[in-house]
């Protein structure tokens, strides 16, 4: 994941995709968005540190 304003990487996430098909990939991507990414409108700790 990277800050779109500065284009610098902030954080890395991973998920184990078990299957070689689009459904498995979609499930993994949706899991990351739902369970790992910060809610919209909140800044990560890395970007807060650079803005303070």
Strand content: under 5%
Instruction: Output mean pLDDT.
Output: 77
Strand/helix succession = HH
- What separation lies between the terminal Cα atoms? 20 Å
Q: Helices and strands: which structural class?
A: mainly alpha
Backbone shape: elongated
Number of extended strands: 0
Largest sheet: none
Number of helices: 2
Are there runs of 5+ residues with pLDDT below 50, and where? none
How many whole angstroms does the radius of gyration measure?
14 Å
- Could you estimate the helical fraction of the residues in percent? 40-55%
Description:
This protein is 40% helix and 0% strand. It starts with 21 loop residues before the first helix and ends with a helix. The protein has helices at residues 22-35, 45-51. With 52 residues, the protein is an all-alpha fold. 0% of the residues are buried.
Quickly list its features.
mainly alpha; 52 residues; single chain
Summarize the helices and strands and which ones pair or pack.
Blueprint: H1 22-35, H2 45-51
Short structural summary:
The chain is mostly helical.
């Amino acid at each position: 994941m990277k800050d779109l304003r500065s284009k610098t990487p902030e954080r890395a996430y991973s998920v184990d995709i078990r299957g070689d098909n689009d459904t498995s990939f979609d499930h993994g991507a949706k899991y990351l968005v739902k369970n790992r990414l910060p809610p919209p409108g909140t800044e990560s700790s890395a970007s807060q540190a650079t803005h303070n």
